[in-house]
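Morning, I've got a small favour to ask if you have a moment. I owe you a coffee for this, so here goes:

…
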Amino acid sequence: MFQRQSSNTPKQPLQVQKSQTDLSAWQIGRTTNGEKSVQNHQSPDVQKKDSEQESLKQALSYFEKVQDHVSLRKNLVLQKHLATVETIALQRGLPPEGFHVLLNVALNGKLADTVNTRLLKSLIPASVIPEDSVVSAVSWLCVSKCSSNIQLLFIRWLITMFDFIDCKEQLRALYGVFFYLLQDEKMCPYICHLLYLLTKKENVKPFRVRRLLDLQAKVGMQCHLQALLSLYKLFRPELVTITLPGKMKNFFRSAEGPWKAAINTIRRKNFPVHQPLVLGTAQPRSRKRKWNAQLIVPASSTNNLEESRGNNVGLYSTSLSFPVEQLQTFPQLLQNIHHLEFPSQMASVLTNPLLLHYMNCAKDESVYLRLYFWMSQALQEECTWCVADNHQNEEEFKIFLETVYKTECFLQEGFPSCEEFLYKSLPLWDGVCCQSQILRLVSWIPLSSFSEMKSQLYDPLAQLFFTSSLYFKCSVLESLTDLLQNWLSCHVFHPDSESESQVHSLNTTLSGLLNVVAELVHFVGRISTAALHLENNSCFLLHFILNFYETVCDMYLRYHLPLLILPPAGVFYPALVSMSPVSLNQLCYLMYRYRTNLVAAKENELSEKKTLQFNISSQTYHEYNQYVIAMVGCLWTSNVFQKDIHPQGLRMDDELLKTTRVQEFKTSFNIVYHPAMIGYAVTFLQQVMVQTNSWAFGSTRCGRKWNWYLEYLYAQGLKGLKVFIESSINRVSQAPVVKQRSMTQKT
């Protein structure tokens, strides 16, 4: 443990200005001298709070005057005051003025370890913790008055309450003191955690790097040492030359066990969940290291904002670091972008647009590393289905996840910590808790290898997908659609603008992207086919499936990706014979866009332009032709049962069709008698019969009246049907004879 050579003169702790013990600012519902006449008329709650305040004053006064070793067992006064501190701390939190007294008495060794432990576990702030009281407490470590267990508990308390401390300049000045404590094997993981929170670039020195490397050589590759070395390497890469792991599931041990429940309770009382998010500068208030209902940029107690506004010119020109609590406008961000000092509470960054702009432009790796560490800890410890007895915090967790999702949308990239959280928690997820928030986060998972995504994303999602409701299935499909769009948007490229030297590297990079995107499309095709069987070809479900393929069909032209995958037969044919005109219209539009992309791909293949070494497969052209034959035979020529050549298509013998006892089975699915179109045909016939009494359904296929019917359908908003007919069917001299347009793969 951290000790120094004793001398004849007893060493005293560093002299720090003593805080007053006046608790008037902490009292709620207090009365003034002029109000004493009505004190008897106060409510019982106010009287109870007054009584608690008086009891706390007496307790603090008692602990402040403790001089000698006091036993807890037979001392009723000590037991009473200790119980008072514990009760008030757990119910309401302690005022700032009480920490100086209680930290000193807990660390000066005058009380038994049992009492000191209970006092440290009771140090729960109601608002903030004065920095002076923490510095004074650290000074007691230098004189070794308390036991090693109490020192360790104090360091854990300091880590947990780090963001409640109103200012940290004096605390950072003690960086060397904390670094010396690394020699204690038991305290080393927690000291690394504390140093991680305190480290600035100027703290990274060669001798400290050597010390950490020596420790690592002695104890092995410990995650807490690797985390601190990673931060050092970001600040001074020339000093840390060893290779460190890119990702770690958990940097540090959790330090907040004894205080977590009390902090959550007091935070909910002081800051209800329904309070709005606040951006900008705020007065010092209760802050939790992870997150709470008010994610704000905390103000530093050592900086007076009004004074700084009056001296902006001098501040900008001379200050080596610019505190973010003074950042108010975008011009300020541009002027001080190289001097920004991020807050210790990384949660505040998520809701500050100016800091997010900085993160998006500057790409400061140290900021991303700190954010990764904080978010990993927060997601792991606050997940309501991964942590036992944590369901009461579900509403807060939803707000937190929503904030993370909005930040990802702002930055247009997913967080690695969210990816790890999803991979770890999806197998345990019930599909109900925080459903919309989790599925939104899924849409920002970074692109990675298929084997990793199959075991950690696709398989857990598929199990939930097949056993959940129709609404959940549609939500998953919507999330996967957004995931595909985000992947394509992040990796879009323009091959025509690349130089000759970049073509080979593009081919190498593109190969992996094509494989991962293709596997996602095939995965959605498989679960969609099964889901349509499970949900009896639901039109609602089919709408979300076709929405996904609207992105797929335009990958070549919109995202310059040489990949086109048609929907499987288990999706195409249910959409073709669907009773919903919306689904049929969507399918027609899809086939039109597929044709447009395939024509463009074929033209590029036949041109002499420099292209990538990836072409659309001939199987894709063949499958498209099969689908077009089926659609034209179904909607136009009424010969789908004879001409459909797809292995899973609608081709059937006439003898089998006659057993259905449908008289005109050949025309059952054309644009007049199709189940999705029959309503339009009836309405159109009713309107026309006002002018002529002799027109029947059968005459609709003839000449000018047929054109009227098509114009009527187009006027009803069936734009997909319109572009499909115009692109895939040749109408000769307005006669009913048509010629099918197909894509022929040339060899």
